[in-house]
Every structure is written in structure tokens, then in C-alpha cells.
Amino acid sequence: MTSSLNINEIYQGDARELLPQVESDSISCSVWSPPYHLGKEYEKGISYDEWIGLLKDVIGLHYSILKPGGFLVINIADILCFPDESIPRFQAMNVSRHKVSITREEVLEAKAANPNYNRNQLAALLGCSEQTIDRRLNGNNIRGGKYNTQTRVHLVGNIIQDAATAANLYLYDRRIWMKDPAWENSKWATLSYRAVDEFEYLYFFWKPGTTIVDRSKLTSEEWASWGSRAVWQIPSVRANNDHEAKFPLELPRRVIKLLTFPDDTVLDCFMGSGTTAVAAIREGRNYIGIEKQSGYVSLARESCEKEKQKWQATNGQKTYKSEYASSGNQLTLLDKF
Ligand SMILES: C[S@@+](CC[C@H](N)C(=O)[O-])C[C@H]1O[C@@H](n2cnc3c(N)ncnc32)[C@H](O)[C@@H]1O
Domain holding 251: CATH number? Predict the structure, then answer.
């Protein structure tokens, strides 16, 4: 029998192999952000089905390790450009992008007036190329290119919810993280009616049991600005130089502060750069981290050491303010960690 994972350590390995080694009923809150199936370096070579399998397995392994009344909080986004061979070709007349000002109506008029003209003759008549005539008549400006596989939006929340329900964990709440608009990831937005990518979800699942609800753990200002609010406006991490998909520290910090008490244990089994562990230390909680890639494990351990030193230097008294001051639900960055 393998011994349990210790608190305040980050372990290298696959979440599916290490989660069974976490002590039963010991985790007050597990908060993590898994791979999003977006082709990041750390998820290369994983098929869609394998990715779903990973999410289901990891969620399924949570029931036994969560304390009764504890929470699993998952930060994830929908897949906005999910390639799908089966969808009909999206025909887009991108009128505002036409380099040649000839409209479809003008081509149709010319055709009606000259029913025997072929495309070549119509092109000569209107002073444009044969290709323009074809595009206007057949509307074959296809988003993403004529021959590329088309994409659609793919919702992820239902997959997560089904996996949690199968594991006897119940959807307790859901919130929105409103982040910076990612214009550079949304080039297609200029060729369609789709919105820019600017929010993600937080799904809160609950393990049946007694949950102590103590409203005094947040100030009335914190309750008003984020504790009771469904939309959390938090700037994205600007410098993803050491890890390609960090979430902002304020995200797990709020979850931890809201759902746990000092000395409770917080888990992140997709630990990445260590953000959740740093937030746990900052809020006086214990942590357990699991991360597959050794480089990120070292990074996370270093970040934890730095945070612990800060903590010890102040004898556990926080001398620095939390990162954000609130005014309504608008947040201003005060002090960058
Ligand atoms: C979205 S990132 C998490 C980033 C983290 N929240 C942060 O702020 O740095 C997902 C992480 O999960 C790790 N990962 C992917 N598959 C894993 C697995 N099967 N077990 C453990 N970690 C895994 C990746 O290496 C990556 O660091």
C-alpha cells in the first residue's frame, strides 16, 4: 500500500495515478484548470476522446478524497473553434471585405439583361474578374477557407457536469471569470458574427455533507464586490513567459477564501506554475499539488518557497494588500505579486 501524499508538497506525475494516493475525506476544496483541448504544448498528441477521458477520470477520483461538504471547483472555457467535418459549409457573403465593389445584385441584374452571357462575358461587361462573378453568384467566400475543416462552438460544461453527477458531486454554483478580450486568438471574429473570446467558467461542485457557512470570513465589502457576485472581473495574466496558460492568482484566492478555512487543505491536480498553492499559502491554507511536467513542478515549488518566505518574514501577518481593490465589480490592480 502506497503512503498518502503529504500536505504542502507538489508531486510530479499524472493526476490519474496520484489522486488515489491522496488521503480520503481530507480535501476541503480542490480547485484547478485542466488542459482545454486547444493544442497547447502540454496537451499535444491527446485526442478529443482521450481529453474527455482525462476529465472524467480526474473528476471521478475526487469523490473519495473530498471532505463531506467540500467542493471541487473547475475553471474551464468552451472550445470556440471546434473542427467539425460534418457541419454544412458556412457560406458568408463578406460584403464589407470585397476588394471589388461589384455587388451580387449588380451581377444578377447584368445576368438578367444578358441571359446568354457566360461568366467570362459578364466579367468583361462589369469590368471585374471571372472569379468575382463566381463569388458573387455562388457565395463561396467560406469562413476559414474553402477547403479547411469548418469550426463550431463546442460547450464543455455539460461534459464536466455529467462526469461530476456520475461521481455523486452536485453542481452547487457557477460563475463567470471575465478576463481580457483575446483579440489575437479571435482573428475569425472579423469574418463572422462571432464574439471575441473574453470569459471562462468556474463550476462549483459539492460533495454531500455538512458545509459550514460562515459569512464572517469575508468583509461586507468583499461580499458585495465578489463573494455574492456571479461575474468576476479579473485581468488575465499578462506575462505567460514561464507557463503558457496560468490563471491569475486572484481567481483561486477568491475560491479558497470563500470555500475554506485557515489550515484546511486545498488541492490542485493540474498545478502548472503553482498559482493555486501560492494562493493557499497566502490565505493560510495547506496545499497539495500534482503536475505532469517536471519543469512546471520545479517552477511551482520555487514559487511556493518564495511565498512561504514572505509569510515567515511577516510571522504570518500579511503586510501586503491583496491584489485588488474593488469599486463596484470593477477591479483595479494595486499590488502585483
Ligand atoms: C491550464 S494548465 C494549469 C495552469 C495553472 N492553473 C497555473 O496557473 O499555472 C494545465 C496544466 O495541467 C498539466 N497537465 C496536463 N495533463 C496532466 C495530467 N494528466 N496530470 C497532471 N497534470 C497534467 C499541464 O502540464 C499544465 O501545466
Answer: 3.40.50.150
The number of domains in the chain is: 2
The CA distance from 23 to 7, in Å, is 10
> Does 290 reside within a domain?
yes
Q: Verify whether ligand 1 is closer than 6 Å to residue 278 (CB atom).
A: no
Beta pairing partners, 83:
151
C-beta 293 within 6 A of ligand 1: yes
Are 45 and 166 members of one domain? yes
Residue whose Cα lies nearest atom 27 of ligand 1: it is 272
Residue 270 Cβ inside 6 Å of ligand 1? The answer reads: yes
Residue-wise pLDDT tens digits, 28-64: 999 999 999 988 888 888 999 999 999 999 999 999 9
Alpha-helical (H) ranges within 260-332 are 275-282, 294-313
Q: Are residues 35 and 163 in the same domain?
A: yes
Could you read off the pLDDT of 272-310 as tens digits, one per residue? 999 999 999 999 999 999 999 999 999 999 999 999 998
Helix (H, G, I), strand (E, B) or coil at 258: helix
First to last CA, the chain: 40
- Do residues 177 and 133 lie in contact, with contact meaning Cβ atoms separated by under 8 Å? no
* Residue 207 to residue 163: CA distance in whole angstroms: 13
Distance, CA 33 to ligand 1 centroid (Å)?
Answer: 7
Are 241 and 306 members of one domain? yes
248 lines ligand 1 (CB under 6 A): no
